[in-house]
Amino acid sequence: MCGNNMSAPLPAIVPAARKATAAVIFLHGLGDTGHGWSEALAGIKSPHVKYICPHAPVMPVSLNMNMSMPSWFDIIGLSPDAQEDETGIKQAAENVKALIDQEVKNGIPSNRIILGGFSQGGALSLYTALTTHQKLAGVVALSCWLPLRTSFPQGPISGVNKDIAVLQCHGDCDPLVPLMFGSLTVEKLKSMINPANVTFRTYSGMMHSSCIEEMMDVKQFIDKHLPPVD
């Protein structure tokens, strides 16, 4: 998953109960692995959908005093004007695009794939969806922000995902990625893609985590945009 490092563990996968005709690729947050999210998604799964939860490579993270931990890219600071790891973000997005290509090779068209993630993983899923040439079914962005936001043009994007459906969710008590980041991100998204397709949900009292209500909203979004085809 990370460049030429062949020792990266294989993703945690929740297989479809019957023939997989759609897929969800979900990226975990900083310092986590795909296992927890694969369990959460198993709790809301649909029989025709395959859920893929890759593990980020382990790397030193500036924000955490250069301690090594699973991370999709380096995080230098959490303020809106903090310097960003542009090279790392772009490389991570290429790795995610390769995962999407792999599923296309497995017989699932890209427009039957939803990309999602939590926190750093949600940030990467948004960035990837807005920069890829692969037409996706939707994006689930939980407790996150849009990385490299100033690198995007003002106004609507012209790519294949300019009408993509986005479900963005955030806790109103998030101490790590404040709700303001979510609000600013949703405004930016609405200026770039069809605003009618952007849904922003907030959850009262939720911190930097998930809740049952949020997971039910995620399930509803997945079921709507990845309906059974057979």
UniProtKB/TrEMBL annotation:
A UniProt-annotated Pfam family: Abhydrolase_2
Swiss-Prot/TrEMBL keywords: Acetylation, Cell membrane, Cytoplasm, Endoplasmic reticulum, Fatty acid metabolism, Hydrolase, Lipid metabolism, Membrane, Nucleus
Domain Phospholipase/carboxylesterase/thioesterase span(s) in chain numbering: 11-225
Highest taxon listed in the record's lineage: Eukaryota
The EC number(s) this enzyme carries: 3.1.2.22
Catalytic activity entry: S-hexadecanoyl-L-cysteinyl-[protein] + H2O = L-cysteinyl-[protein] + hexadecanoate + H(+); 1-hexadecanoyl-sn-glycero-3-phosphocholine + H2O = sn-glycerol 3-phosphocholine + hexadecanoate + H(+); a 1-(9Z-octadecenoyl)-2-acyl-sn-glycero-3-phosphocholine + H2O = a 2-acyl-sn-glycero-3-phosphocholine + (9Z)-octadecenoate + H(+)
Molecular-function GO term, any one: palmitoyl-(protein) hydrolase activity
GO cellular component: endoplasmic reticulum; nuclear membrane; plasma membrane
Presence of keyword Zinc-finger: no
Presence of the UniProt keyword Ubl conjugation in the record: no
GO biological process: fatty acid metabolic process
Principal place of residence: membrane
Subcellular location: Cell membrane; Cytoplasm; Endoplasmic reticulum; Nucleus membrane
Subunit-structure text: Homodimer.
Family to which the UniProt record says this protein belongs: Belongs to the AB hydrolase superfamily. AB hydrolase 2 family.
Biological function: Acts as an acyl-protein thioesterase. Hydrolyzes fatty acids from S-acylated cysteine residues in proteins such as trimeric G alpha proteins or HRAS. Acts as a palmitoyl thioesterase that catalyzes depalmitoylation of proteins, such as ADRB2, KCNMA1 and SQSTM1. Acts as a negative regulator of autophagy by mediating palmitoylation of SQSTM1, decreasing affinity between SQSTM1 and ATG8 proteins and recruitment of ubiquitinated cargo proteins to autophagosomes. Acts as a lysophospholipase and hydrolyzes lysophosphatidylcholine (lyso-PC).
Protein name: Acyl-protein thioesterase 1
Organism name: Piaya cayana (Common squirrel cuckoo)
